[in-house]
Structures are given as structure tokens and as C-alpha cells.
Write the C-alpha cells for this entry.
Amino acid sequence: MKRAVDERDQWTDKELTVLFGSPVWSGCLSTGRRSQAGAQIIRDDKFWIPLITLFSGMRLEEICQLRTDDIREENCISFFDINDRPPRQLKNRNAIRRVPIHSDLIRMGFLSYIKTLGKGSQPVFPALKPGGADDKLGHGFTKWFTHYRKAIGVYRKNLDFHSLRHTATTLMHQADVPTLVIDHLTGHSTPGETARYTKGSSLQQLATAIEAIKPGLSLEHLR
């Protein structure tokens, strides 16, 4: 039986550079021709979701079901409020948490994008529709992301969208972020006595950990 750590690979710096230097993020022809180079940068679900996962370690479905009132701020720290208020559904109770928004996402205009969606509780990615056997919002996105990676030449076995979550976790670990804090950010349970008696990390601790995610690629063209 494979260990969880062996099931998926981490994205290399070169692969991340190819991905985020490709037409979705550098300029494509049109909404329907994302893999072809052009002048349009369309900041929708296809643009934001991979970036959010890389800079947070959040699960795909957690991102897909975000609503505008899940984007909050406390003590000058903007964060994703991951909750199970209907119609949201989470993997488990550990998934309920706060995930600070990485400063790179803010510099790329994510909070400005949220403001364009209107007031109230609006879907952050309104174009996503439920699909597949589990009726998940991420179903169509997963299929698109696979086709897109093949089109731009960054596709290999054991490397997929979820690998971006692994990459975020690995980058935090390599920056010496405590395992307990990483687990609080990613919604994992932590075994052992320390976890048993530690109820949570402060928002500032979580924000510091998030900022430790420093992938080896340049995103200056997105700022």
C-alpha cells in the first residue's frame, strides 16, 4: 500500500514557472481558447483557483464553494473563513478553520476581484456548476485543468491539481513552520499529546506561516 506522501508528487520550480507563465496567466486568445497565447488575462476561476491553492494549501472544493462573505478581515489580516454553513460542505470538522490570504494574492488583485462580485453572500466563482457522481463544484474545473496541462506540456503521472496543496505544505515545512500550525492551516488532524492539548493557532501565527510559502517562480507580470 502506498503512503499518502507517495501518492502525488510536488510541483518543481520549473513546472510552476511553466504553468504560471502559460496563457491563462500571461495572456490568452479568449475565454474558449485559454491555452493559446494572446492579449487577454481573464481573472476568473481558472486564473485564481490554482494560485489560491499554491499560496494556501486549501482543498479544491473548499475554494470552489467560497462565497464573498467568507472573505473576512480581523486585526488587519484578511483571511478565508472556511466553514460549513449551507450550502457549503466540508470534508470533516477539522476543515473548519481560518486561512490568511497570502500577500502575493492580495498584490495580484484578489481582494479587488472580490469587490467586483457585489454585496451579500455571492459565489466567489459563479461560473462553476456542480457535476460528477458527487455533484462537486470542482468537477468541471478538474477536467479542464488536466486538459490544459496537457496542452501546455506540464503533465506527468502523479502530478495533478492536488499536488499544489502538497507543494504549499512542503514549502511551509521547509521554512520550519511547526507541523501543528501547518495542520491548523490545511485542516489536517495532528496525532500526539501536543495536538490534544493545543486547541488552535492564532491568526497572526497562521498569517506568518502562510507568508512562508515562497515558490521559486516570478509572478511580477501578475502584480
User: Anything to note?
Assistant: The first strand starts at residue 28 and ends at 30. DSSP finds twelve helices and five strands in the chain. The domain at 4-214 is CATH 1.10.443.10 (hpI Integrase; Chain A). The first helix runs from residue 4 to 7.
